[in-house]
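Subject: complex prediction, re-run

Hi both,

The earlier run crashed halfway through, so I resubmitted it with identical inputs.
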Amino acid sequence: MTATLARTQAADLPDRGAIEQFLYAEARMLDEKRWEDWMDLFTEDGTYWIPTADDQVDPDTRASIMFDDKTMMQMRVRRLRHPEVHAQTPPSRTAHLVTNVMVAPSPDGDGDIEVSACFIMLEFRVEEQTVYGGRYLYRLTETGNGLAIRKKTVRMVNCDAAHQLMAIYL
Amino acid sequence: MYANDDLQTMVRPDRVHRRLYVDPDIFEMEMDRIFGRMWVFVAHESQVPEPNDYVTTRIGRQPLLITRDKSGDVHVMFNRCGHRGVKLCATAEGNSPGFRCPYHGWNYRANGKLAGIPYRDGYSDEFLKDPSLDLARPARVDSYRGFIFVSLSPDGMSLDEHLGPIKGSIDDLCDRAPDGEILAQAGCNRYIVRANWKLQMDNGVDLYHAPFAHHSTLDEDGRQFSRHGGGPSFYKPGTKNPVDFDPMGVHGFANGHGYQGAVPQVPDPDGMAFKELKAMLVERHGAERTREILTYDRFNSMIYPNLTFQAMGHHFRLVMPIDVDRTEVRIYPILFKGAPDAWNRYAIRSVAATHSPASMIQTDDVAVFERAQEGLQAQGSDWVMFARHMGAETPNNLGGLGAPGSSEFVLRQQYNDVWLKNMSA
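This time it finished cleanly. Structure:
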């Protein structure tokens, strides 16, 4: 067990520079509305989750703001490309800031990587700028093609607030 | 304040004046005369299942504290200390045997009785005996199958009379649960609409908008979420033309309530969860009654002035006016008491996709309501039209009226008979 962990840390855990680069690239895909590319960052069983409570443990026992598996992501992105998506007429303009990145091996000892980062997303839409912020929690995994997202949880600081319409991924 | 004569010029048989949506004076009157007089939905009893559970909410703009005391009784009280008026409880939900005011430490039991005042000797005995020091309560509280309604007026019709035949929609919902009760125990989604509260409520009986407002949600075959087992196509077979919703029908009743009729050709949801739920219902009610219960005879039901719900959409919706151009809406996933966990999980996940503030259906509605609020600032045309299928309504067998699905008669009836009557002095 100790040997496995040591090996993971020494050999399998990418350096934080590579992980930060991955997070920045992801953020840029979202800012540039390259949602199809962004979806490809997820594993086939990958999920994206925004809970409504800061102590919420799963999307099955309490309401969620979003809980998308890959199928749902495809439906959502297909809709975002539709000419009559009223919630994106006019479209949002965003800037994601990703900071305070912390990296740790998965406690499951399966070689996955857990990443925690703080984020701010500025969104401008219909004459108003909105600030979203909180913490991103990732479970990343190494694939033959580099890093992939197995799970992304977005812990918004105001997860339980009444939100204006949120048409796009944070 | 508008006099009765002024109000009457704003409501016509087939249209209402835009002022109803944009005028702050109208909004103030609505807080007094609609939300301050009528029966208003405030919470579901299952939100406080255990002794000392509480939730906070509002009726109109007034803060409410709803508790269950140690003997199991539910109390609806104003969330306001009897001393200087400080909001007593600042959290949305929790469990507490009592509440202590943060200002001068006056404290209350879960049943609203004043339990203690620091430095009592500064008050006369006579003052301390005054029962009005207990938490104040709305004039009337009543419930139907767990749905708690409040009226701030001591006079007026009973809740039973107010609801009338729309109770059938609540029955239709609750009967689907193996134990005959729904549970609002999965939290809620909250969203803000920068628009008048009536735009959300008007939409509660609007079948006309679906193919247009929600066009972006349709797959190639015109079905919403078809890959997650979505319902029937919005397109006529072999075309991209919107299907005709008129055969579904829409029904309206006294006091402003209504519901949309049966969605055509809804297949049973796939999966074990539904099969298990059905088996439980069959065991309890037999096959014939279960078939009746599970048929979707009613799509969206609307209880005026602030509640809508969908069995198919697994949620009820509480509409909370904040200002003339600002409304909070809460969407509560509906769990069925006694149902398989997998069914309730499916319900919760489904609401995240369809009716959360980031959902694929609700966001388009919100965008449209907000554009309506902007558009209604225009003075060039002062009227909001509800003329569709004018005069096509006929008596239904429930004591109300029915009409083709896209008819706007429920709103005509609501504004002319209910809104105007309540708003008049």
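Chain B has two domains: 40-144, 164-208+245-423.

- K.
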